[in-house]
Amino acid sequence: METFYNRPIPRTYTPAAEIRDYVAANLHNDQVYAVQAAMCDELSIDGATAMPREKTLRQREKYFAGCPFSGLEEVLRMAREKEGVL
């Protein structure tokens, strides 16, 4: 993204303990989206969002054979070329 836009993009880091504490403290209140975002962060930390490469490639061929896949750079380029998107 930084290369595409030719500018630095700020990053923030939150310690795993802070994410887990936030989820535990806010699980039953009205901060639904914030809690869901923190839960996704928690899943990422635990590696639950990682996909085994070989299995993913087999399933891609089995279920999506012939479907073109686009990388991030290509998606950004297509969006830039479409008026009013970026």
Query: Structural class of the secondary elements?
Result: mainly alpha
Q: What is the helix fraction of residues, given as a range?
A: 55-70%
What value does the Rg take, in angstroms?
A: 18 Å
Mean pLDDT: 89
State the shape. Answer: extended
Please report which band the strand proportion falls in: under 5%, 5-15%, 15-25%, 25-35%, 35-45% or over 45%: under 5%
Quick one: how many beta strands? Answer: 0
Q: Terminal Cα separation, in Å?
A: 13 Å
Order of helices and strands: HHHHH
Unreliable stretches: none
Q: Can you count the helices?
A: 5
Largest sheet: none
Structure description:
- The structure is a single chain.
- By secondary structure, the chain is an all-alpha fold.
- It has five helices and no strands.
- The radius of gyration is 18 Å and the shape is extended.
- The two termini are 13 Å apart.
- The mean pLDDT is 89.
Helix-strand layout with pairing:
Layout: H1 2-5, H2 16-26, H3 32-46, H4 53-64, H5 72-81
Relevant terms:
single chain; 86 residues; 5 helices; extended
